[in-house]
Specification:
heterodimer, A: 145 residues, 2 domains, 3 helices, B: 352 residues, Rossmann fold, Cytochrome-c3 Hydrogenase, Chain A, domain 2, 5-stranded parallel beta sheet, two-stranded antiparallel ribbon, 38% helix, globular, binds iron/sulfur cluster
Chain lengths: 145, 352
């Protein structure tokens, strides 16, 4: 495990299950309440919690495995998975070397990073229009020849 | 790059989408223990910002800080900072030399009056008229004074700039002083460390860009996000400390079992820095994880504290309130760390 949140203690020393998984699951349940009742989304930064590998496994188990998995290639890889609990997403951003840069639980209908940003859409349209204009000009020239 | 283009426009022309800003800010918020809910607003702020002019001055130093800064390692995510800033002057990195280099500095100062950031590494010699370190015929004292005059803020990177560092060590033959002695009322951020953790440098600069203001600082001008807790607070060997299990030498059984290094001179309890969580070399490790003690290289006077391998005077009194209180209360590692995480969150909640 090479990542920013490697907090492994040497063997046989500290208890591996700290109870944090349970606490996080309860927080997620509350965030789901809010999402259902008000539509407000929630985020938990897993990096800030001193979770052990065992805690992490417990959390994964508690949420279950879902049916959506998205791989992004944005300044290094990112993996975004909906867990078996609908509306609860596990977001993992990595640097180029596979090191975890951020790990979040997002409680939302869809994590914002998956949506196309309006500025990107505008930029895409400009490029497409430029391309079409150029292609149009070349086409006209070819016809004239 | 055209100076009046926003970072968003600039990056988009290079085929880098707004998602990259979102991801960078999620990373930044996590590293700085800011609420993850702030990331979208930060991304928005960053995308709307202009490229930040930075003038980097190197005085009495070893270039280790620059080495560290340029090794924020990953060629993708963390390196985005180099797209966000315009490093207009830096002795070691700039291609120009001599008069052309000095001209670049003056031009940047003129064009970005009141907006540029001055990064300084190294202390400044003041003895004998400051003759012990001169650049282009000017003393460090004069260069610093003229460069910061119209700066937005000064960032002192490395322990030499922040606290005097090795040049300031007894008997301090050059009369070296920390940058804080010479900046008057200019906003100052200290990012100590020998060298500083790269993420502490890049994260602080990105914070200024995204919010247009300085991050929250402690009484020594250090960003709380990176220097708010001691190495001891976040050390994975802490449970041994609490249980009184100490290595007595570097090759004894305790050392092999990974026990606490306090008695072989660990200065973790008085060291405020981010090594234990951010770690080094792409999150690989930090000195204590490699079996060595912490020197407290980011603390004032770390070089004159009676020896790197001499243990701190007393387990309870010298450590101060944090360790004293938690040790007395018998807080276990996990619970202690969780509490700390909660406190950090609280500290920053007002920014949300
Ligand atoms: S004294 Fe040093 S090794 Fe021991 S727990 Fe504190 S920081 Fe870790």
């Amino acid at each position: 495990m090479s990542n920013l949140i490697d907090r492994r203690a040497p063997e046989n020393t500290t208890p591996f299950v700290t109870g944090l998984a349970d606490a996080v699951l309860r927080e997620i349940a509350e965030l789901l309440d809010t999402l259902i009742e008000t539509g407000e989304t929630g985020i938990i930064d897993l990096h800030s919690l001193p979770m052990t590998d065992a805690d992490r496994d417990m959390l994964k188990e508690g949420l279950g495995e879902g049916e959506v998995r998205v791989d992004l290639d944005v300044a290094g890889p990112s993996r975004i998975e909906e867990t078996g609990t609908a509306g609860v997403w596990w977001v993992r951003h990595e640097g180029a070397d596979g090191r975890i840069a951020a790990e979040l639980i997002e409680v939302t209908r869809i994590p914002e990073i998956l949506l196309s940003h309006p500025d990107d859409i505008r930029e895409g349209r400009t490029r497409l229009r430029e391309h079409l204009d150029e292609a149009g000009e070349t086409g006209t020239e070819e016809l004239a020849e | 790059m055209t100076k009046d283009r926003t970072l968003g426009e600039h990056m988009s022309r290079r085929g880098i989408s707004r998602r990259a800003f979102g991801k960078y800010c999620a990373y930044l918020a996590s590293t700085m223990a800011l609420s993850p809910k702030m990331a979208p607003a930060m991304a928005q702020g960053l995308a709307a910002a202009r490229r930040q002019a930075v003038i980097w001055l190197s005085f009495q130093e070893c270039t280790g800080c620059t080495e560290s800064f340029t090794r924020s390692y990953s060629p993708t995510l963390e390196d985005l900072i180099f797209d966000f800033i315009s490093l207009d002057y830096h002795h070691t990195l700039q291609a120009a030399s001599g008069e052309a280099a000095e001209l670049a500095r003056e031009q940047s100062m003129e064009e970005n009056k009141g907006k540029y950031i001055v990064v300084v590494d190294g202390s400044v010699p003041t003895k004998d008229g400051g003759v012990y370190s001169m650049i282009a015929g000017h003393t460090n004292v004069d260069i610093l004074a003229s460069t910061i005059e119209n700066a937005f803020a000064v960032v002192a990177v490395g322990t030499c700039a922040a606290f005097g560092g090795l040049p300031y060590a007894k008997p301090n033959p050059t009369g070296a002083v920390a940058i804080s002695e010479l900046v008057g009322n200019k906003p100052l951020i200290n990012i100590p460390g020998c060298p500083p953790v790269p993420e502490a440098m890049t994260g602080t600069i990105a914070h200024i860009l995204a919010f247009g203001s300085l991050p929250e600082l402690d009484d020594k001008h250090r960003p709380l996000a990176f220097f708010g807790e001691s190495i001891h607070d976040r050390c994975y060997r802490r449970s041994f400390y609490e249980r009184g299990l100490f290595a007595k030498s570097f090759d004894d059984e305790g050392a092999r079992k990974g026990w606490c290094l306090y008695e072989v001179g660990c200065k973790g309890p008085i060291a405020y820095n981010t090594c234990a969580t951010t770690k080094w070399n792409g999150g690989t490790s930090f000195p204590i994880q490699s079996g060595h003690t912490c020197f407290a290289c980011g603390s004032p006077n770390f070089w004159d504290q009676g020896g790197f391998y001499k243990s701190l005077p007393s387990r309870t009194s010298s450590i101060g309130t944090v360790a004293g209180a938690t040790a007395a209360a018998g807080v276990a590692l996990g619970a202690g760390a969780a509490l700390i995480a909660a406190n950090r969150k609280k500290q920053y909640s007002k920014e949300t």
